[in-house]
What does this fold into?
Amino acid sequence: MSAMVPNKLLVLCMVIVTSLVCLSYSKCDFEGIFNFGDSNSDTGGFYAAFPAEKGPYGMTYFHKPSGRATDGRLIVDFLAQALGLPFLSPYLQSIGSDFRHGANFATLASTVLLPNTSLFVTGISPFSLAIQLNQMKEFKARVVELHEQETKLPNPDIFGKSIYTFYIGQNDFTSNLAAIGIGGVKEYLPQVVSQIGATIKELYELGGRTIMVLNLAPVGCYPSMLVELPHDSSDLDEFGCMVSYNNAVVDYNNMLKETLTKIRENLSDASVIYVDTSSVLLEMFRHPTSHGLQHGTRACCGYGGGDYNFNPRVYCGNTKELNGSTVTATACEDPYHYVSWDGIHATEAANKLTTLAILNGSYSDPPFPFHERCDLQPIG
Ligand SMILES: *[C@@H]1O[C@H](CO)[C@@H](O)[C@H](O)[C@H]1NC(C)=O
Ligand SMILES: *[C@@H]1O[C@H](CO)[C@@H](O)[C@H](O)[C@H]1NC(C)=O
Ligand SMILES: *[C@@H]1O[C@H](CO)[C@@H](O)[C@H](O)[C@H]1NC(C)=O
Ligand SMILES: *[C@@H]1O[C@H](CO)[C@@H](O)[C@H](O)[C@H]1NC(C)=O
It folds into this structure.
C-alpha cells in the first residue's frame, strides 16, 4: 500500500514534464546568435574583464547591474528572447556562461578599427572588431575540438544555423568628433565600413549564412553629444537634434548600405542584411509621445546639463565633488518614458521598440520578416 504512493507520484511528474516539453516547443531556423559590438550590445563582456559596474544600471529588468550599459535589456537580449533562445553569454565571462546557443563578443567602448594611439586617444576598449573576430575563430576551433566533453558548448553544426549580428561603429564615429570634427572623422569612415565588410566575408568562411548589420544611431540627438560637441543653436532642428552630426550619420549609413549590397553579390547563398535601426531611434527622439514615451533628448540617469540631464564629469551612478559640493547622477523614476538612459545609451524601452522593428523586417534591406523563419516568442 505505502509503496503505491510513490509510483503514482512518479507517473504524475512524468505527465507534467511531458506536457511542459510540448508547450515549450517552437520552431526557429536560428539555433544561435553570435554578436559583435560595443556597449549597445555588450551583455557583460567588458565588466567580466574589468569589474566595476554599479547601480542604477540594470534597475528595470535585472534589478542589479548585469554588465549591460542600460537599465534593462538590450536589443540583442530581446532578439534572443523573440527567437526562443537564452540571453547570450559574453565570450569573456569565465563563470556561469552557457554557449550552447551562441556567444557575445561585444564589449563596451569597442571600435571597428584598431584602437591604436594615433586614431583614438582615450577611453577605447582593447577588444576591437578584429579581436572579436579572432575570438570567434578561437571559439569555433574549441567547439570543434571539445563539444563532446564540454556540456556548455554547441554542436559544430550551429555555425551554419545561427544569425550573426553587428552593432558596432558608434565609437569610431563619436570618440574623435570633439577633437577633429566631422571632416576629420569622415576621412577614416570608409575604412570602418570596409573593415565591417571584410569581417562579414570571414564569417562566411566560418560557415555564417545569415548576417545582420544594425546601422549607426542618430548620435546628434544623444544628450551626451548635445552637451559635449560644439554646435550653435542654428544647428538644432525642430526636435532639438544636431543637423550636421545627424547628416554625417546618414552619409555613413548610406556608405555602409552600399558596401553590404556589394558584398551580397559575392555571397549569393547568404543573407547579408542591413537594418535601419537609426530611423527607428530617430523617430523615437522626434516623436517620443507617439511611441508611449515622454522624453527625447533628456537622459533618464544623469546630473545637470539643463534639459539634457547630462554632465560628462558625473556619469550615471557616480558621485563627484563639483565646485565644492557633492553631487550624484541618479536615475529617473520612470525609465520607460525615456529614449536615452544615461545620455549615451538607449533605455530598455527604446531597445524593445527597436527590436520590434527589426523583427517586423520592413526596416531591413533586403526585407527580412523574422516570423517567416521562426515562431516568434513574446518579448514582454
Ligand atoms: C593606426 O591605425 C591606422 C589605420 O589603421 C594606421 O594607418 C596607423 O599606422 C596606425 N598607427 C599606429 C601607431 O599603429
Ligand atoms: C567579389 O569577388 C570578386 C572575385 O573574387 C572580387 O574581385 C571582388 O573584389 C569581390 N567584391 C567584393 C565587394 O567583395
Ligand atoms: C562650477 O564652476 C564653474 C566655474 O565657475 C562653472 O563654469 C560651472 O558651471 C560650475 N559647475 C557646476 C556644476 O555648478
Ligand atoms: C510591419 O510593420 C508594418 C507597418 O507598421 C505593417 O504594415 C506590417 O504588417 C508589419 N509586418 C509584420 C510582419 O509584422
Remarks:
- The first strand starts at residue 32 and ends at 37.
